Protein backbone atom coordinates (compact mmCIF):
# COMPACT_ATOMS: atom_id res chain seq x y z
CA UNK A 1 0.00 0.00 0.00
CA UNK A 2 1.19 3.54 -0.64
CA UNK A 3 1.08 6.40 1.83
CA UNK A 4 -1.48 9.16 1.46
CA UNK A 5 1.09 11.70 0.26
CA UNK A 6 2.60 9.39 -2.38
CA UNK A 7 -0.85 8.33 -3.62
CA UNK A 8 -1.94 11.97 -3.98
CA UNK A 9 1.33 12.74 -5.75
CA UNK A 10 0.81 9.88 -8.22
CA UNK A 11 -2.77 10.97 -8.82
CA UNK A 12 -1.69 14.56 -9.53
CA UNK A 13 1.01 13.31 -11.93
CA UNK A 14 -1.60 11.25 -13.82
CA UNK A 15 -3.95 14.26 -14.00
CA UNK A 16 -1.07 16.42 -15.23
CA UNK A 17 -0.19 13.88 -17.96
CA UNK A 18 -3.86 13.67 -18.90
CA UNK A 19 -4.11 17.46 -19.23
CA UNK A 20 -0.90 17.59 -21.26
CA UNK A 21 -2.24 14.93 -23.62
CA UNK A 22 -5.58 16.74 -23.95
CA UNK A 23 -3.75 19.99 -24.76
CA UNK A 24 -1.55 18.16 -27.29
CA UNK A 25 -4.55 16.55 -28.99
CA UNK A 26 -6.46 19.85 -29.11
CA UNK A 27 -3.50 21.48 -30.85
CA UNK A 28 -3.31 18.81 -33.54
CA UNK A 29 -4.86 19.69 -36.91
CA UNK A 30 -8.27 18.11 -37.26
CA UNK A 31 -8.68 15.44 -39.90
CA UNK A 32 -10.53 16.76 -42.94
CA UNK A 33 -12.40 14.90 -45.62
CA UNK A 34 -10.10 14.78 -48.64
CA UNK A 35 -13.11 15.02 -50.96
CA UNK A 36 -15.12 17.95 -49.56
CA UNK A 37 -12.90 19.40 -46.82
CA UNK A 38 -15.40 19.00 -43.97
CA UNK A 39 -14.18 18.14 -40.46
CA UNK A 40 -17.29 16.42 -39.12
CA UNK A 41 -18.07 12.71 -38.94
CA UNK A 42 -14.71 11.62 -40.37
CA UNK A 43 -14.20 7.93 -41.21
CA UNK A 44 -11.64 6.06 -43.31
CA UNK A 45 -12.42 5.42 -46.97
CA UNK A 46 -10.60 3.05 -49.30
CA UNK A 47 -8.71 4.95 -51.98
CA UNK A 48 -9.52 2.20 -54.50
CA UNK A 49 -12.89 0.53 -54.00
CA UNK A 50 -12.66 -2.49 -51.72
CA UNK A 51 -15.34 -4.21 -53.78
CA UNK A 52 -12.81 -4.71 -56.62
CA UNK A 53 -10.88 -7.20 -54.50
CA UNK A 54 -11.73 -10.91 -54.44
CA UNK A 55 -12.67 -12.81 -51.29
CA UNK A 56 -9.90 -13.50 -48.78
CA UNK A 57 -7.50 -11.11 -50.48
CA UNK A 58 -4.38 -10.69 -48.34
CA UNK A 59 -1.66 -9.26 -50.59
CA UNK A 60 -0.55 -5.85 -49.38
CA UNK A 61 -2.29 -3.20 -47.33
CA UNK A 62 -5.34 -1.45 -48.80
CA UNK A 63 -4.93 2.33 -48.89
CA UNK A 64 -7.40 4.27 -46.71
CA UNK A 65 -7.74 8.02 -46.28
CA UNK A 66 -9.94 10.39 -44.23
CA UNK A 67 -13.42 10.89 -45.63
CA UNK A 68 -16.66 12.20 -44.15
CA UNK A 69 -19.52 9.75 -43.90
CA UNK A 70 -21.59 11.55 -46.55
CA UNK A 71 -18.83 11.38 -49.18
CA UNK A 72 -18.03 7.81 -48.21
CA UNK A 73 -21.61 6.68 -48.78
CA UNK A 74 -22.16 8.80 -51.90
CA UNK A 75 -19.94 6.58 -54.05
CA UNK A 76 -21.60 3.23 -53.26
CA UNK A 77 -23.93 2.93 -56.27
CA UNK A 78 -21.36 4.27 -58.74
CA UNK A 79 -18.71 1.89 -57.42
CA UNK A 80 -21.03 -1.07 -57.82
CA UNK A 81 -21.77 -0.23 -61.47
CA UNK A 82 -18.11 0.52 -62.16
CA UNK A 83 -17.15 -2.92 -60.84
CA UNK A 84 -19.70 -4.57 -63.14
CA UNK A 85 -18.30 -2.67 -66.10
CA UNK A 86 -14.69 -3.63 -65.31
CA UNK A 87 -15.47 -7.29 -64.70
CA UNK A 88 -17.61 -7.56 -67.84
CA UNK A 89 -14.75 -6.14 -69.91
CA UNK A 90 -12.10 -8.35 -68.31
CA UNK A 91 -13.35 -11.91 -67.81
CA UNK A 92 -11.70 -13.26 -70.97
CA UNK A 93 -8.24 -12.06 -69.95
CA UNK A 94 -8.37 -12.01 -66.17
CA UNK A 95 -8.79 -14.97 -63.86
CA UNK A 96 -9.41 -12.54 -61.00
CA UNK A 97 -12.28 -10.92 -62.90
CA UNK A 98 -13.79 -14.32 -63.64
CA UNK A 99 -13.56 -15.26 -59.95
CA UNK A 100 -15.23 -11.95 -59.05
CA UNK A 101 -18.08 -12.67 -61.47
CA UNK A 102 -18.78 -16.11 -60.02
CA UNK A 103 -18.12 -15.03 -56.44
CA UNK A 104 -18.85 -11.56 -55.06
CA UNK A 105 -20.97 -10.32 -57.95
CA UNK A 106 -23.17 -13.44 -58.16
CA UNK A 107 -23.80 -13.31 -54.41
CA UNK A 108 -24.65 -9.60 -54.60
CA UNK A 109 -27.14 -10.27 -57.38
CA UNK A 110 -28.84 -13.04 -55.41
CA UNK A 111 -29.26 -10.69 -52.45
CA UNK A 112 -30.78 -7.97 -54.64
CA UNK A 113 -32.82 -9.53 -57.48
CA UNK A 114 -34.07 -6.11 -58.57
CA UNK A 115 -30.54 -4.93 -59.24
CA UNK A 116 -29.81 -8.16 -61.08
CA UNK A 117 -32.73 -7.53 -63.43
CA UNK A 118 -31.45 -4.01 -64.16
CA UNK A 119 -28.01 -5.41 -64.95
CA UNK A 120 -29.45 -8.08 -67.26
CA UNK A 121 -31.26 -5.34 -69.19
CA UNK A 122 -27.86 -3.86 -70.03
CA UNK A 123 -26.64 -7.14 -71.52
CA UNK A 124 -27.36 -8.56 -74.96
CA UNK A 125 -25.92 -11.39 -77.12
CA UNK A 126 -23.84 -10.31 -80.12
CA UNK A 127 -21.77 -11.95 -82.84
CA UNK A 128 -18.09 -11.03 -82.65
CA UNK A 129 -15.54 -11.54 -85.42
CA UNK A 130 -12.42 -13.26 -84.11
CA UNK A 131 -8.89 -12.79 -85.58
CA UNK A 132 -9.36 -15.92 -87.71
CA UNK A 133 -12.41 -14.43 -89.38
CA UNK A 134 -14.94 -16.66 -87.64
CA UNK A 135 -17.89 -15.50 -85.59
CA UNK A 136 -18.11 -16.01 -81.84
CA UNK A 137 -20.98 -15.50 -79.45
CA UNK A 138 -20.30 -12.64 -77.03
CA UNK A 139 -22.26 -10.64 -74.49
CA UNK A 140 -22.35 -6.88 -75.00
CA UNK A 141 -22.74 -4.66 -71.96
CA UNK A 142 -24.59 -1.43 -72.68
CA UNK A 143 -23.10 1.63 -70.96
CA UNK A 144 -25.39 4.66 -70.96
CA UNK A 145 -24.25 8.28 -70.81
CA UNK A 146 -25.37 8.36 -67.18
CA UNK A 147 -23.33 5.21 -66.47
CA UNK A 148 -20.24 6.89 -67.90
CA UNK A 149 -20.79 9.86 -65.60
CA UNK A 150 -20.91 7.45 -62.66
CA UNK A 151 -17.71 5.72 -63.82
CA UNK A 152 -16.01 9.10 -64.03
CA UNK A 153 -17.17 10.02 -60.52
CA UNK A 154 -15.46 6.85 -59.25
CA UNK A 155 -12.29 7.73 -61.15
CA UNK A 156 -12.49 11.26 -59.71
CA UNK A 157 -12.46 9.65 -56.27
CA UNK A 158 -9.47 7.45 -57.11
CA UNK A 159 -7.44 10.36 -58.45
CA UNK A 160 -8.28 12.65 -55.51
CA UNK A 161 -7.43 9.94 -52.98
CA UNK A 162 -4.15 8.88 -54.58
CA UNK A 163 -3.12 12.48 -55.25
CA UNK A 164 -3.58 13.18 -51.52
CA UNK A 165 -1.65 10.04 -50.59
CA UNK A 166 1.36 10.84 -52.77
CA UNK A 167 1.41 14.66 -52.64
CA UNK A 168 0.20 15.18 -49.08
CA UNK A 169 -2.31 17.83 -50.18
CA UNK A 170 -5.69 17.86 -51.87
CA UNK A 171 -6.05 18.63 -55.56
CA UNK A 172 -6.58 22.42 -55.86
CA UNK A 173 -10.28 23.23 -55.82
CA UNK A 174 -10.12 25.06 -59.17
CA UNK A 175 -8.46 22.15 -60.97
CA UNK A 176 -10.52 19.97 -63.26
CA UNK A 177 -10.19 16.20 -63.66
CA UNK A 178 -10.73 14.54 -67.02
CA UNK A 179 -10.70 10.84 -67.92
CA UNK A 180 -10.09 8.95 -71.16
CA UNK A 181 -11.00 5.31 -71.75
CA UNK A 182 -8.05 3.75 -73.59
CA UNK A 183 -9.27 1.06 -75.98
CA UNK A 184 -5.85 0.55 -77.55
CA UNK A 185 -2.90 0.48 -75.09
CA UNK A 186 -0.41 0.86 -77.95
CA UNK A 187 -1.63 4.45 -78.34
CA UNK A 188 0.02 5.41 -75.06
CA UNK A 189 3.48 6.68 -76.10
CA UNK A 190 6.45 4.81 -74.63
CA UNK A 191 8.05 8.03 -73.39
CA UNK A 192 4.87 8.76 -71.42
CA UNK A 193 4.94 5.27 -69.88
CA UNK A 194 8.61 5.70 -68.95
CA UNK A 195 8.00 9.06 -67.27
CA UNK A 196 5.34 7.70 -64.91
CA UNK A 197 5.89 6.29 -61.43
CA UNK A 198 4.26 2.86 -61.29
CA UNK A 199 2.64 1.23 -58.26
CA UNK A 200 2.23 -2.55 -58.65
CA UNK A 201 1.23 -3.44 -55.07
CA UNK A 202 -2.08 -5.00 -56.16
CA UNK A 203 -1.13 -6.35 -59.56
CA UNK A 204 -3.85 -8.26 -61.47
CA UNK A 205 -6.54 -6.25 -59.64
CA UNK A 206 -5.33 -2.76 -60.41
CA UNK A 207 -2.06 -0.96 -61.01
CA UNK A 208 -1.58 2.75 -61.43
CA UNK A 209 1.08 5.19 -62.51
CA UNK A 210 1.37 8.93 -62.16
CA UNK A 211 3.48 12.02 -62.71
CA UNK A 212 3.00 15.44 -61.14
CA UNK A 213 4.39 18.93 -61.79
CA UNK A 214 5.15 20.29 -58.29
CA UNK A 215 4.98 23.96 -59.27
CA UNK A 216 1.45 23.73 -60.72
CA UNK A 217 0.19 20.44 -59.20
CA UNK A 218 -0.88 19.32 -62.66
CA UNK A 219 -0.85 15.54 -62.80
CA UNK A 220 -1.43 12.61 -65.12
CA UNK A 221 -2.56 9.14 -64.07
CA UNK A 222 -2.87 5.77 -65.77
CA UNK A 223 -5.02 2.99 -64.28
CA UNK A 224 -5.08 -0.62 -65.44
CA UNK A 225 -7.85 -2.80 -63.97
CA UNK A 226 -7.79 -6.61 -64.08
CA UNK A 227 -4.92 -6.50 -66.62
CA UNK A 228 -7.45 -5.30 -69.21
CA UNK A 229 -9.27 -1.99 -68.75
CA UNK A 230 -7.19 1.17 -69.03
CA UNK A 231 -8.11 4.74 -68.17
CA UNK A 232 -5.94 7.84 -68.33
CA UNK A 233 -6.77 10.78 -66.07
CA UNK A 234 -5.51 14.35 -66.01
CA UNK A 235 -5.74 17.13 -63.43
CA UNK A 236 -5.05 20.77 -64.24
CA UNK A 237 -6.43 24.28 -64.14
CA UNK A 238 -9.25 24.69 -66.70
CA UNK A 239 -7.17 26.67 -69.22
CA UNK A 240 -4.29 24.20 -69.10
CA UNK A 241 -6.44 21.20 -70.00
CA UNK A 242 -7.20 22.62 -73.43
CA UNK A 243 -3.57 23.38 -74.28
Structure characterization notes:
This protein has helices at residues 4-27, 69-74, 76-90, 95-111, 113-121, 145-167, 190-195, 238-241, and strands at 42-46, 64-68, 123-129, 135-141, 176-182, 197-199, 206-213, 218-225, 229-236. By secondary structure, it is of the alpha+beta class. Strands 5-9-8-7-6 form a 5-stranded antiparallel sheet. It has a two-stranded antiparallel ribbon with strand order 1-2. Helix 3 (76-90) crosses helix 4 (95-111), helix 3 (76-90) crosses helix 6 (145-167) and helix 4 packs across helix 5. It starts with a helix and ends with a helix. Residues 10-15 and 21-28 have low confidence and may be disordered.
Output the keywords.
globular; 43% helix; single chain; 243 residues
Share of residues in helices: 40-55%
| Global Rg | 24 Å
Strand content: 15-25%
- Describe the main β-sheet briefly: 5 strands, antiparallel
The low-pLDDT segments are 10-15, 21-28
Number of strands: 9
Strands ordered across the widest β-sheet? 5-9-8-7-6
Sketch the topology as an H/E string, one letter per element: HEEHHHHEEHEHEEEEH
The gross shape turns out to be globular
- Mean pLDDT over the residues: 82
What separation lies between the terminal Cα atoms? Answer: 78 Å
- Structural category is alpha+beta
SS summary, helix count = 8
Reconstruct the topology from this structure.
Blueprint: H1 4-27, E1 42-46, E2 64-68, H2 69-74, H3 76-90, H4 95-111, H5 113-121, E3 123-129, E4 135-141, H6 145-167, E5 176-182, H7 190-195, E6 197-199, E7 206-213, E8 218-225, E9 229-236, H8 238-241
